[in-house]
């Protein structure tokens, strides 16, 4: 076994578990929360075309916030973080 002092490696391939790089798609509730949040952003964006329609903008904001609450209560940021 050789040791390379410049890179601090031993020249041996790194041993990793096969499951370490598997794709984990997340839980359905997380995808649902992301979809609600995206819909809110789209509705809010559409509110500015061709001129600002503020009631539609605030409706989109409310939808996005509802989606963020779904993500918060589903603990998406702590359980689905890779």
Question: Would you give an account of this structure?
Answer:
52% of the residues lie in helices and 0% in strands. The chain is mostly helical. The relative contact order is 0.16.
Report low-confidence residues grouped into runs of 5 or more. none
Identify the quaternary structure here. single chain
- The number of E-state strands comes to 0
Tally of separate helices:
3
Average the pLDDT over all residues and give the rounded result: 81
TL;DR?
With 82 residues, this protein is an all-alpha fold.
Which helices and strands appear, and what pairs or packs with what?
Layout: H1 28-46, H2 54-73, H3 76-79
Helix pairs in contact: 1-2
Quickly list its features.
82 residues; mainly alpha; 3 helices; elongated
């Amino acid at each position: 076994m050789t040791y390379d002092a410049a890179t601090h490696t031993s020249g041996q391939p790194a041993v990793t578990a096969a499951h370490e790089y598997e794709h984990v798609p997340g839980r359905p509730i997380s995808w649902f929360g992301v979809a609600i949040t995206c819909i809110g952003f789209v509705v809010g964006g559409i509110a500015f075309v061709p001129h600002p329609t503020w009631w539609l903008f605030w409706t989109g904001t409310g939808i996005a916030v509802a989606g963020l609450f779904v993500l918060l209560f589903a603990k998406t940021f702590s359980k689905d973080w890779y």
